[in-house]
Design a protein that fits this description.
This protein is an alpha/beta fold. It has 19 helices and 19 strands. Among the domains are: 243 residues, P-loop containing nucleotide triphosphate hydrolases (Rossmann fold); 70 residues, no CATH class. It is globular and about 70 Å long.
Length: 508
């Protein structure tokens, strides 16, 4: 029996075809992964399935309902978690859960008052708090949660009421491997055998674990079946999916080729000297010390909330350390912040460009802000637009871009002035596998030219590209070494297992 039946679905936005004569059945009681490059049509497909978008042609049947004419009835049976889940950041964890439970008509017996007559021993909210391990944080504002905790809360709100059909649009974007496993465990253990799950993802190791994988490209389905029929291991599966999308031919990085840059004489280009950041009695970063050599790719790995982004901000001069300092190209960030920052390109974890400006306007602004002359600005902006494949979108507002294109634009802005040092805070978060490979082609090529790169990532296969890694946990460094050294220390064959083992060992 099928939960979803789609026949000859087409959806256009102006002259652009997002869904192209697509037909698909989604089997009841299965977890189906939806995979595709940025702009392939994944989010559009999810939104048409639940009636948020009206199709141009074709038929959709979801749980026996027409999602357009019977949207209200269908809503009672589904749980939908969009890419940007609508948590109320000025409400606490428990207040968010009670609000969503109230909207869904779910048992919300307030704790610790006695449960109403006939209610179950434990309310649905209590069960969610316990299962997500958010019970100790139920009075914390949602806006103060780490990325992984926010995703857990968003998923908990979506799961309230035991929906028959769960639609999750990249729920694990930007969360660490431990949190990703927790999210998957939540879904598998909280649903019943008849629940259908449609899970859009950028993580192909995640998709390899699903019952069914649907690969979509340019609005068309190019594979629909068991991921194990395509490949036996996650890495082989990733390569097969790339082949289905047309393959990836690693060419010379045009960014590196056109980098107007002379490697600096300074050997230690980045130094952290006992950096600390304290909020009251809480240490976000504690005794952080390391040195990075010219041309080195240095990875900062750690769970959400470990202090990686705080370290980045202190080293960029965006947050003042409580104690300690950092040096960029030998320049003290506390004593000469502007001079130090002139040597930096910084790509923030959250999209930090100007949403109301177009792609070109953003690049124009950052070119001038980084000191590129008016005479050279247009030439440089045109070059960056071409290299990053942004020509088609140069007149689009930044806020209207898909997540992967926003990341591309952020990286282009960080690189526009050819800095000797790059700080990249989760540069590939949420982007598809082809774009990730392209990003890392640029990163490794720049390092070969002598550019120093400090990077954070939640893709453990990307950690293998780093020359050295500092593993961060609860604001402190718990291990430093090459990927091979960390795997040996953790007794692990891969970086994800090493990451988890080293975190667990530090908790002892």
């Amino acid at each position: 029996m099928n939960t979803v039946e789609i026949k000859n679905l087409t959806k256009k936005f102006g002259s652009s075809t997002a869904i192209d004569n697509l037909s698909l059945n989604i089997e009841r009681g299965k977890i189906t992964g939806l995979i595709g490059a940025d702009g392939a049509g994944k989010t559009t497909l999810l939104r048409t399935i639940i009636g948020l978008l009206v199709v141009d042609s074709g038929e959709i049947n979801v749980l026996g309902f027409d999602p357009v004419t019977q949207k209200d009835e269908l809503n009672l049976h589904i749980g939908y978690m969009p890419q940007k889940f609508g948590l109320y950041e000025d409400l606490t964890v428990i207040e968010n859960l009670r609000l969503y439970a109230d909207l869904k008509g779910v048992n919300i017996a307030p704790h610790p008052n006695p449960l109403p007559k006939g209610a179950r021993e434990q309310s649905d909210i209590d069960k969610m708090l316990e299962f997500t391990t958010l019970a100790p944080f139920q009075d914390r504002l949602a806006g103060a949660l780490s990325g992984g905790m926010k995703q857990k809360l968003g998923l908990a709100c979506t799961l309230l009421g035991n929906p028959e059909f769960l639609l999750l649009d990249e729920p694990s974007v930007g969360v660490d491997p431990i949190s990703r496993r927790d999210l998957m465990k939540m879904v598998r253990e909280m649903i019943n055998p008849e629940t259908t799950v449609l899970w859009s993802t950028a993580y192909l190791d995640e998709a390899h674990s699903f019952d069914t994988a649907v690969v979509i490209d340019r609005g068309k389905i190019i594979f629909n079946g068991s991921p194990h029929d395509l490949a036996s291991t996650p890495q082989e599966f990733e390569n097969k999916v790339i082949d289905l999308m047309g393959g990836y031919s690693k060419e010379e990085s045009l960014i590196a080729k056109n980098y107007d840059y002379k490697a600096p004489d300074v050997e230690l280009t980045v130094e952290a000297d006992n950096l600390e950041k304290r909020y009251g009695n809480f240490y976000a970063v504690k005794n952080n010390t390391f040195k990075i050599k010219k041309g080195e790719i240095f990875g900062l790995l750690g769970p959400n909330g470990a202090g990686k982004s705080t370290s980045f901000k202190m080293m960029c001069g965006l947050a003042r350390p409580t104690s300690g300092t950092a040096r960029i190209m030998g320049i003290d960030i506390k004593k000469q912040p502007e001079k130090a920052r002139a040597n930096l390109g910084y790509m923030a974890q959250k999209f930090s460009l100007y949403g109301s400006l177009t792609v070109r306007e953003n690049l124009d602004f950052f070119a001038l802000a980084y000191g590129i002359s008016i005479l050279k600005k247009e030439e440089k902006v045109n070059e960056v637009i071409d290299v990053f494949g942004l020509k088609e979108y140069e007149n689009s507002k930044a806020e209207d871009l898909p997540l992967g294109l926003k990341q591309r634009l952020s990286m282009a802005a960080a690189l526009i002035h050819n800095p000797p040092v790059l700080f990249l805070d989760e540069p590939t978060s949420g982007v598809d596998v082809l774009t990730r490979r392209d990003f890392w082609n640029h990163i490794t090529s720049l390092a070969k030219k002598g550019v120093t790169i400090m990077v954070t990532t939640h893709f453990m296969d990307e950690a293998e590209y780093c020359d050295r890694i500092s593993l961060f946990y609860k604001g402190e460094t718990i291990a430093v070494g090459t990927p091979a050294e960390l795997k040996q220390q953790a007794g692990a064959k891969d970086m994800e297992t090493a990451f988890i083992n080293l975190i667990k060992e530090s908790e002892k």
